[in-house]
């Protein structure tokens, strides 16, 4: 059979778009016997073409690698870290060696047009970003509300009414402190009792009340007393009214 008869080269991608920094994948497969000669990837066609991949050349530091190493039918390549200068049309080409030991074009693919664009959000990341922002705003709102609630509670706890003094006659003033708004506190009881006192006792000019501190009396000396009588102790309270 004649060498090269029935040989097929397939380059299925007409156009490929990739973002900056991503990996560019260019597909090419062959079938049949193409004879001796390498398969290459060329960027552009004509006198200005550039060899991107050569089957005979192996550069471990190259950014271009084979998808399936050492394969004789799959010549798909990966170009890492795509950049704007990688824009162009790429061709998968089968070469054969002529009698003069020069590689000549035997088959050429239809070409793949490559475009490189700026990195964009992957589909779905936009929605995730929106959800994240909403959750962040909710957390911020809850934090503000909690802070205001704590300040309000602290304000209520510290809102004690000022000291109130009650003056009774010539005795010293007695300060009373109560909690605002608390029912049954001593201040309210005192106010209720004060409102029920006779009007003649509400004025200093009408009454003058003296209080005596009752203390246990010292033991009285033993004196003669009538049989059957018991010792007594008493204290007096004088109220002078004008």
TrEMBL record:
Pfam families: V-set. The chain crosses the membrane at residues 128-149. Residues 193-202 have a biased composition (Polar residues). SUPFAM superfamilies: Immunoglobulin (SSF48726). Keywords: Disulfide bond, Glycoprotein, Immunoglobulin domain, Membrane, Signal, Transmembrane, Transmembrane helix. It comes from the Eukaryota. This is SHPS1 phosphatase. It comes from Sinosuthora webbiana. The gene is Sirpa_1.
